[in-house]
Amino acid sequence: MKENQKYSDQELIQAIKDRKNINQAIRFMYESHYRYLESYVLQNSGNADDAADIIQETFLVFIKVLEEDKFRQESGVKSFLYSIVRNLWISELRKRKGMEIRNEIFEESKDMITADISQSLERHESHKLIMELFQSLGDKCRNILLLFYYENLPMKEIMEKEAFSNEQVLRNKKHKCLKSLIEKVQSDEKTYSTIKNALQYAG
Question: What pTM, to 2 d.p., does this model score?
Answer without folding.
Answer: 0.49
